[in-house]
Predict the structure.
Amino acid sequence: MQTADFYPAVQQAMHARALDNRGTLHPALLRRLGEQLADYLLTPEADARAMAQQFAASGLALSSLLAGAEALQAALLDAGHAAEARHVIGQLSPLMLAMNDAAIALVLREQEQIRAAAARAAEERQSDLLLRRSEADRLAVLVNELSTPIIPIYSGILVLPLIGAIDSNRAGVVMEALLTKITEHSADAVIIDITGVAIVDTFVAQYLLQTARAASLLGTLVIFTGIGAEIAQTMVQIGVDLDGVLTLSDLEAGIEYALGSLRLAIQPA
């Protein structure tokens, strides 16, 4: 008896159950699997576990394997090979059990791979979030530094030009930065220029006065410059008390006054 004579019956039966297989098996691969199945079922004492692992790894389904075995048995009976047909049944039982174990092991490996991939993705997301948060913190620090440029123009004299809107968060940052710079430079005078502040409301006015008082407690002269007519009118209307606060028209005047307080002056070369 030639085993190859029964290949077509096995292959045809397995092809009919092709959609049961995991993934899409190429027809050429399905033919080879049919040949291997026929060879195994007609080989005495074949290694069921090794063959089952090979079938499971290829994606062959139990239903497809069973269809091939039944087709082989029917073909053997039709050809008058009853003993070989009974041998197929004996070989099929351990193969089916081994296939079931191999399929379970394969699923477990895939689940472990999925869990590992999910863990890696979670770690990458966490790392990306930490990186983004670090970058956001760095940018926030940079923005605060750029929005609070405290410039030493001479030994003991600092200039703080305020530009744009001032909210409670920025007000706290500016005051803290200014007091820190006053201490670092042992500043005798600070010029706060508000030319770039478009709107002065009650909050902004109170913030400016609090900043001036805090600097004064450190023994530093505070000079406000850039208070235009419109802002001055607004401050009067909202009842801001500017008594004891030194105000000058523009930054140039503030610099001259600060220099004068140190018995210095700008002279032509």
About this structure: Residues 40 and 47 are 8 Å apart (CA to CA). The mean pLDDT is 85. The chain has nine helices and five strands.
